[in-house]
UniProtKB/TrEMBL annotation:
This is NAD-dependent epimerase/dehydratase family protein. It comes from Mariniflexile gromovii. Gene3D superfamilies: NAD(P)-binding Rossmann-like Domain. Pfam families: Epimerase (PF01370). Residues 4-226 form the NAD-dependent epimerase/dehydratase domain. SUPFAM superfamilies: NAD(P)-binding Rossmann-fold domains. Transmembrane segments: none annotated.
Length: 323
């Protein structure tokens, strides 16, 4: 049986991926800081390893066939680029170097769709389009892109695959992370929504795409795992329909969002941590849309509806009484 080492195994994607890998007959070594926070099920082929990713991982990676690196700094309130770089770029390079030293066969880096050029509904973003504003000014997206570029320099030394998922929804979102968007509209009498849009994808489809890439993916290639392009208005209309809500929907004008963003910039200049910034507000005002043809053709992915992703996430939130 193939042995897989997974970082960030207790996150939204990591937990779902570990479950799916085990169901597909893989042996999984899951790396995390605190075993007590793991939400997946115990399994005879699952080994949870506590530690710090900056430690020497070579003893752990010996005998491992594949490394899937998910762990990342994703906080939006950090004001210093180097705080992203040391985790998302420098650490990633260290893990790749250790993987090569231990003769790991395949290295999968889970990045983000935002390192690629987004598009409109009539001209979708693809794997070959370059990052553009406002994401080129996002410290998070820039750190991920810098990591991608560094990794690709070593693609001749190991089978290297880059996965670029869009906005994931589904179960095991314990924080919640991306699932916060559901709480913005779920059980609300009034829903305030920004003027832009996103590509949404079921987290289980991202997991399936990663697993498929182990055998169907090509070294040195990037794969967008993306499904449905929706304006924020259409997303919340979908949520209203699925939950039999009749919420009043109010669009937030772009000028107001950008103005709030500049206030956030001032707070950041004062070294006050906040998720609000002009860059983040501008991101909410664009149609951040992507194409999934490559993943369908090469990874043989069949996508699940975003309706199901929303319902599965809400089912999980209800079961865990997450509010």
């Amino acid at each position: 049986m193939e042995k897989i080492f997974v970082t960030g195994v207790n996150g939204l994607l990591g937990t779902n991926l570990s479950v799916d890998l085990l169901e597909n007959g893989y042996v999984v070594k899951g790396f995390l800081r605190d075993k007590s926070k793991f939400q997946g099920q115990n399994h005879p082929n699952l080994e949870l390893i506590e530690g710090n990713l900056f430690d020497d991982l070579t003893p752990i990676l010996k005998g491992v066939d594949t490394v899937i690196h998910i762990a990342a700094e994703t906080s939006q309130n950090i004001t210093n680029y180097m705080d992203y770089w040391k985790i998302n770029c420098n650490l990633t390079n260290q893990i790749l170097t250790s993987s090569i030293q231990c003769k790991v066969k395949t290295f999968v880096f889970v990045s983000t769709a935002n390192t690629l050029g987004y598009g409109t509904i009539n001209d979708l973003g693809t794997e070959i389009k370059e990052i553009k504003s406002p994401f080129k000014f996002s410290f998070y997206a820039k750190s991920k892109l810098d990591a991608e570029n560094d990794l690709l320099k070593k693609k001749d030394n190991i089978k290297l695959i880059i996965i670029n998922p869009t906005f994931m929804l589904g179960p095991f979102d314990t924080k919640p992370s991306s699932g916060k968007i559901i709480f913005m509209g779920w059980k609300k009498k009034i829903i305030f929504f920004p003027p832009g849009g996103k590509n949404f994808v079921y987290v289980k489809d991202v997991s399936k795409g990663i697993i498929s890439s182990l055998h169907n993916g090509k070294s040195g290639e990037k794969y967008l795992i993306a499904n449905e392009n929706l304006s924020f208005k259409d997303f919340f209309k979908k949520l209203n329909h699925l939950e039999n809500q009749n919420s009043l929907m109010i669009k937030i004008p772009r000028k107001i969002l950008i103005g709030i963003g500049y206030l956030g910039d001032i707070l950041r200049l004062c070294k006050i941590k906040t998720n609000i910034s002009s860059i983040n507000m501008k991101i909410l005002c664009i149609d951040n849309f992507y194409d999934n043809k490559k993943s369908i053709l090469e990874l043989k992915l069949k996508y699940t509806s975003v309706d199901y992703a929303i319902k599965d996430a809400i089912k999980y939130f209800n079961n865990k009484q997450i509010k």
